[in-house]
Amino acid sequence: MRGLKIESTWKLVMVLGLALVALSEVRAVHGAQLSPTQCKEERRLAVNMCKPIVFGQPPPPGCCERVRLSHYQCVCPIFTPRVANLITVNKAIKLFQSCGRRVPHNFKCGSLYFP
């Protein structure tokens, strides 16, 4: 039973990491505010498109597309201190790079900090 709990926790961490994928294109929303519903949809799409990563596979093209289209304002708020402790920043950066994106130096997203 304990192994199942650890596996579930790891999968949760990976899914949350997938949400982080949406951050790779750090850009401002020019003159438009996204509604909470729109942000929720962006998070849902990113998680669904990037599920193969949970199983150790490389990000599929649809996942990388979400990386380029999602707004960081929608994703950053989910990275509380507790969630940030579960995510390895270096792994997230490698994931971004595999999608052809870079994370700016000194970028802060929720409780995550990218030096």
From TrEMBL:
Pfam families in UniProt: LTP_2 (PF14368)
Name the record gives this protein: Uncharacterized protein LOC115737032
UniProt source species: Rhodamnia argentea
Signal peptide: 1-28
Annotated gene: LOC115737032
Alphabetical list of SUPFAM superfamilies matching this protein: Bifunctional inhibitor/lipid-transfer protein/seed storage 2S albumin (SSF47699)
Entry keyword annotation includes Signal: yes
Domain Bifunctional inhibitor/plant lipid transfer protein/seed storage helical: residue ranges: 20-109
Taxonomy, superkingdom: Eukaryota
UniProt keyword list: Signal
